[in-house]
Structures are given as structure tokens and as C-alpha cells.
Amino acid sequence: MTSKKEIDAELIEKVKKGDTQAFRQLVDKYKDVSLSLAYSIIKDKPRAEDVLQDVFMTVFHKSYNFKHKSAFSSWLYRIVINSSYNELKRNKIHLELNEINANKLLTKEKTVFQNIKEDDQKKYVVLALNKLKPDEALVLRLFYLCDLSLKEIADITDFSPSKIKVDLHRGRKNMESALHDLLGKQSKDLL
Amino acid sequence: MEENDFKTLLKQSTINTSDGFTDKLIMKLEAEKSSLSIPKRSEIISLRYPLFIIFSSGICFMLLLFFDLLPTFNLMNYHVQLRSTPFLIIIILALFIGVNHLLNLKIQAKHRLGL
Asked: What is the pLDDT of residues A148-170, one digit of tens each?
């Protein structure tokens, strides 16, 4: 049976030769997780999507640089994370202003969320993650969503293992309190 | 919260790209490919002059080295004499960088054109 890594390796070799169909397969496979990682940092979907478009363009053009020393996904996530932090640095002031507005919006919507049924769990999870610091949300997603080990996360993000452990611990705590803020008592049912 | 519960919860944090994300990307690539297949005349002309300057200054340096014509001058009471070895090293380095750049351009062009 061909492993996920081998399939990716085959596809990327085709991409190196300029095969756009193989590239399409790779994009379809990784676009959602990559967007989630970019969103953890940028916290703005349209901007995260723009960054992701640029990232995939870079991946296509620089695919000949990929030497199979790591998994394709790790290489991709690294580019996504670096580009997202660069975007964050470029628009920091803009983001800080938006954050204030977003917080106002969340407090306003809090009462509305309490009346919504539990079938929309995903929305609450994304909203709660959005309230975390970029590093915490990113580490949580890399660990739980992408199933990466602490070492893999350290390789991709260049964070120290101790920082990753602290971010995981704080991220979990803050996530629980963010869910509690959003859902009130109903958060216990969700958890 | 238990570790597994947390994992289940976080698995729901995937954010989906908007419709047509992949198509938009592929269209961008295809458009780029077709615009790259024929190099613009202005690009070729704009490359001509820097290449000529680099090439002629390289020849000048080589001549200076060959005939040992490197100048000597006084700078703030110090007698400065230019040695041929550093120039030779610089020229060789520049040559390597230039060749490397040209090879990279060739690989990139091949890749973009899908050759």
C-alpha cells in the first residue's frame, strides 16, 4: 500500500515537471488545513486566503527546491506559517484595530450564541480559537488538527520545545475559557 | 477536558477555502505560463546593457591583472597598492555567482514552461 508521504512525493515530482493536474491534487488535499493554519495567525479569512494563494504559487515555482528531506506537508506548512507571520507583521496596526472591533462583536453576539443549537459546534470552536493568541492557536492546530509531534512542530515553526509545551497548555486553558465565554453553561455540553 | 475530547473538538477547527479557490489558483498559473512562453522584447533589450557592462568591466579587470597595471595611491598618509590576488578572487566569485544565477534561471524557465 502506498503511504501518504509516497503519494505526495510522486505528485511533487510531477509538479516539478510543470504538471498542473498533479498540483491541483496537492492543493485540494492541503488547502483547508493550510488555510486553518494561516487563519490561526492572521485571523482574517479573506487575507488568509490571499496569503495562501501566494503560498501555493511559491510552492509551484519553487517545487524544484523540495529535496524530500522532510514530508511535503511539513515543507508546505512551514511556508504557510512564515508567510502568515510576514503578513501579520506587515499589517499589525490594521489587525490591532480589527481585534478591538472583533472583541466588541463577540461580546455583542455572546447572548445570541447561547440560543443557537449545538449542531453548530464548528462555529464555536473556530470562534474560540480566534480569541487565542496566534502562537497558541497555531500550536493547538498543528498538534491536534495536523497530528504533528512536538519535534515536528518545533522543526516547522522554529519554536523551542518548551515554548510549544507552554503554548499547548495555555492554549487549551484559554480555549476552554473562550468557549465558556461564548456558550456560558452550555459549554459543558459541548465539552 | 480529556485529551481525546480536545482532539475531537479541534478536529472541527478546519476552515474551508471559498468556492473556486483551486480554479482561481490554476488559472493564475496558466495565465503566468502563457505570458512567460514568449519573452517580451523589452525584457531582452533591458538585459543586454547590464550584460555588456559586466562583460566589458570583467575584461578590463583581466587586462589590468594580466599586464600588472593595478594602480597605487596614497590614502590618508597610507600607501595603498592594489594586489592582483583579491581581484582575481572577486572575479572568480562573480563568475560563479553569475553561472549559478544563469543555471537557476534556466531551471526556473524550464519548470514554468513545463519542459
From this structure: 999 999 999 999 999 999 999 99
Q: Please report the ipTM that was assigned to this predicted complex.
A: 0.75
Chain-chain contact of B17 with A49 (C-beta, under 8 angstroms): yes
Which strand (E) or helix (H) includes residue B91?
Answer: helix B84-113
Supply the pLDDT for residue A114: 45
Grid cell locating B21? 479557490
Query: What is the grid cell recorded at A159?
Result: 519554536
Residues in A whose CB is inside 8 Å of some CB of B read: 16-20, 23-24, 27-28, 31-33, 35-36, 39, 45, 48-49, 52-53, 56-57, 60-61, 63-64, 121-122, 125-126, 129, 140-141, 144-145, 172, 175-176, 190-191
pTM above 0.80, yes or no: no
Mean predicted confidence (pLDDT) in B19-46 = 75
Determine the Cα–Cα distance for residues A53 and A180; give it in Å rounded to an integer.
Answer: 35
Give the C-alpha separation, B26 to A18, whole Å: 12
Tell me which of A159 and B106 has the higher pLDDT: A159
